[in-house]
Amino acid sequence: MEKLVSAKERLLKSGNNRMDGELRGKIIVILCAVIMISATIAITIFLGVKGLQSFIKNGVSLIEFITSKNWNPTNQANPEYGTFPFIFGSFAVTFLSALVAAPLGIGGAIFMTEIAPSWGRKILQPVIELLVGIPSVVYGFIGLTVLVPFIRENVGGLGFSLLSGTIVLSVMILPTVTTIATDSMSSLPKTLREGSYALGATRWQTIRKVLIPAALPTLLTAIVLGMARAFGEALAVQMVIGNVKNLPSSLLDASATLTTIITLNMGHTTYGSVENNTLWSMGLILLVMSFAFILLIRYLSSRRKM
């Protein structure tokens, strides 16, 4: 009788401990979620309030801010706050780097998953992951010491240009695109390949007409994620793009992005001044674009699940 009671007590105690552990785990998970959501909301509200002050408090025209090509906030007589060259530079390097990295990354993913033997992926995968861990300042320094002189001596211009920024960003986002594309191609069911081969299709026909269309939403998501990283990159681009206020007319012209202007000027402005507030407004534009990239990724993910 005592043994039965003891076993029953142990069973009840084990159940209570399991329930307590589940409750603690649930509390920790909810607390982490609340902290993450609160931090996101707080950053959004703070950046929104600071970014709108230049328009509400300082009277800067939103239309002029976005469309004007003149940036001269230190002019006491007639300050100008046009950020169109920087917005253009941000979008230019982002889309150009995506045009370079997307085919290379997707091609590398196809090679590793469909063409190379198993040992080929074992070699290439660590190399790609190693590129992810390289700090952006290293990419910028290599671009500054190797790429900029090479372009200046062999292509033309000063070397500090949209082309330099595009190449550096392409290398930086290439691992992101390749890794996600590789996972996407690897996750496709084998029945797609087997069915295509059974119908008499060649390997290239299978890749082009079956596998790539099936993985297309995820491949597009990989490209958008790479673009999101490129749009927000500051240090590496700042070291090679030239950081001028003029609107570039070719790939060999120097330019600037929203992130490079913010990092260059934020430390030289007085907190609460008009120039400082306009820099916060640039940060607000970056935040809005980040949300736009996230919404686009969510849309592509929903298409993948359909």
Keywords:
306 residues, mainly alpha, two-stranded antiparallel ribbon, 11 helices, 2 strands, 1% strand, globular, disordered N terminus
Q: What does this entry look like structurally?
A:
It contains 11 helices and 2 strands; from the N terminus they run H-H-E-E-H-H-H-H-H-H-H-H-H. With 306 residues, the chain is mostly helical. A hairpin with a 7-residue loop joins strand 1 (71-72) and strand 2. It is globular. The termini are far apart.
What's the number of extended β-strand segments?
Answer: 2
N-to-C order of helices and strands: HHEEHHHHHHHHH
User: Largest sheet, described in full?
Assistant: 2 strands, antiparallel
State the helical fraction: over 70%
- How much beta, percentage-wise? under 5%
Radius of gyration: 26 Å
Write the layout of secondary structure elements.
Elements: H1 2-56, H2 62-67, E1 71-72, E2 80-81, H3 84-115, H4 118-132, H5 136-154, H6 162-186, H7 190-198, H8 203-232, H9 235-238, H10 258-265, H11 274-305
Antiparallel strand pairs: 1-2
Quick recap of the structure?
This protein has 306 residues and is mainly alpha-helical. 77% of the residues lie in helices and 1% in strands. The protein has a two-stranded antiparallel ribbon.
